[in-house]
Each structure stands twice: as structure tokens, then as C-alpha cells.
Amino acid sequence: MTKDVLVSICGLQMMSDQEDNEPVEVITAGDYYKKNDKHYVIYDEVVEGFEGKTKNIIKLHENCVDITKRGITNVHMVFEKNKKNVTCYQTPFGSMMVGIDAKDIKIVEAENDISVKVKYALELNYEHLADCTIKMAIQSKDAGDFQLLS
Q: How far apart are CA 60 and CA 40, in angstroms?
């Protein structure tokens, strides 16, 4: 895997009171490195309507996805299989308690790409909000088309 990567993140929230659950996808350039058997992906996120940016750091290792956001929004989310983690998510509109209960984590590593799929239950202020799926594809810029895990 090269240092310069393309990152695709696709998220879907299955909320029981909504019929049309549309996925949200972001594709951006980022930096990749591996240290102590952990994969790190770093990229900046711009939020429409706000000045500045949010720096995102994704750390991948066995049965764990760790996401840190610093900037317009601030949060440290840990997705650990069969474990619930609670964190404070700070946004420009205020803070909220977010619970993440990861049900399944799949990380598939190849020579020029890494695919990640996380299924989890999302809580907001200690109340179940949605069942969610995040799919990530991290790929060397010169490797070709993205292929997300199905």
C-alpha cells in the first residue's frame, strides 16, 4: 500500500421509523501508514456551511476500528466487536452522548487496498437510535476502482 490513498466511506442507518434509508458516501484523498501492526488513515473533511475542517484519523487493528475527529466536530469513537463504547460527540450545535455497540467487524487486507465493514447499534443519549453499517475502502491512488465489501 502506498502513502497516498483514496478513501471511500459509505454509511447506512436503518431507523425503524423511516422507510427510505439512503446511504451517505464520501470519497476523498488521504494518507496511509502502518505501525505496530495497526493501519492508520488520515484525511481532512470539509463541512458545508462552516469554515475550517475536521481532521479524521482511522486506526484499524484486529476486531477494532478507532475513529478520531478533531476540528469542527470532535469525537473519539471506538468500534470493538461485541463491546459497547460510549463517547461524547461535540458538534457546532452542541454535545451529545453516543453509544456504539459493534455487532460485526470485517477487515480484509490486500496488497493495494483494505476493505472494512462494521455493523453496529447506535445510541443517542442512552436511547437506541438506529442499526448502522459503515463500509470503508482504502486504496492506493494508482490501484484502480474501489470495491466495497458487500
A: 7
pLDDT tens by residue, 3-31: 999 999 998 877 656 556 677 888 899 99
Per-residue pLDDT reduced to its tens digit, 76-94? 999 999 999 999 999 988 9
What is the domain extent for residue 80? 4-140
Q: Give SS3 for 115.
A: strand
Report CA-CA distances (Å) from 12 to 9, 24, 26, 120, 133: 10, 7, 12, 10, 5
The whole-model pTM stands at 0.88
CA-to-CA dists, residue 71 to 19, 42, 74, 92, angstroms: 33, 13, 6, 10
Residue 122: which CATH number?
A: 2.40.128.20
